[in-house]
Amino acid sequence: MARLNLLEETRYEKLPVSVYSNQQEASVAVANRIADLIRAKQAKGEKAVLGLATGVTPIGVYAELVRQHKEAGLSFKNVITFNLDEYYPMKPTAAQSYVTFMYENLFSHIDIDKANVMVHWIKKP
Question: Among 17, 36, 44, 80, which one is least packed by beta carbons within 10 Å?
Answer without folding.
Answer: 17
